[in-house]
Amino acid sequence: MDKKITIAIDGFSSTGKSTLAKQLAKHLGYVYVDTGAMYRAVTFFAMQNGYINIDSFDKETLINSLPIIKLQFKFNPDLGFAEMYLNDINVETEIRTIEVSNFVSKVAEISEVRAKLVEQQKEMGKDKGIVMDGRDIGTVVFPDAELKIFMTAGADTRAQRRFDELQEKGDSVTYEEVLKNVEERDYIDTHRKDSPLVMADDAIEIDNSYLTREEQFKVVLDLVDEVVKTL
User: What angle (nearest 5°) sits at the alpha carbon of residue 178, between those of residues 182 and 121?
Assistant: First the structure.
């Protein structure tokens, strides 16, 4: 496949955006960027420094600290994908906890945070041949992307997937906690003033409530083939 395109994957939390994006990038030989990991890393930084907790959120101090936050993706050949580094430290495991999930949407609401990360994301995709997933990829980061996917599934289904994933990692959480987190993130993501989660007008919606990973991958790969043929 000589002609490279930009693939933007948006959608609600725990819809498997990253799993699909990794599959596509590996199959197509494209660069994969998990924008959620970037927002999670900034959230982890805020938690580490005491800027955000269950009782308070010092937004101004976090905003003032943005210049010293260095984010990098470094490819791990053993895992087959790039891991998130925060100020030269691998935080891939730390950013995937339920604690980070509980705060990430609040951090992602901040316009200054979004501006910093969107600028980096646009730079990453300037040469095409990229699969990027997040909340505003097709609407803000790459509004001209050749293929835009919007993924959704029922909140119960997504919570069960996330719960199973956390259980496998050994995290001590309840299904009720995870469901609450999913619902709260949905509300914040769709109601924030800056770049709310919405489906782009030219995006293709995929409800994967009852699709396997293999079925979903085939559906999207067929869409990629259709787009490339028109170029």
Answer: 50
Beta strands 89-90; 81-86: pairing state? antiparallel
* 128-154 pLDDT, tens digit each: 999 999 999 999 999 999 999 999 999
Cα 199 to its chain centre, rounded Å, is 15
Tokens describing residue 43? 């959230």
Centre a 10 Å sphere on the Cβ of residue 111 and count the other Cβ atoms it contains. 12
- Alpha helix ranges (H) inside 141-208: 155-168, 175-191
Q: Counting every residue, how long is the chain? A: 231
d(CA 154, CA 224): 25
- Which of helix, strand or coil describes residue 45? helix
**Strand pairing category for 6-11 and 31-34:** unpaired
Phi-psi region of 170 (alpha: psi -120 to 50; beta: other; left: phi over 0): left
* Torsion sign, CA atoms 222, 223, 225, 229: positive
Could you give the CA distance from residue 58 to residue 48 in angstroms, rounded to a whole number? 13
Q: What pTM was estimated for this model as a whole?
A: 0.85
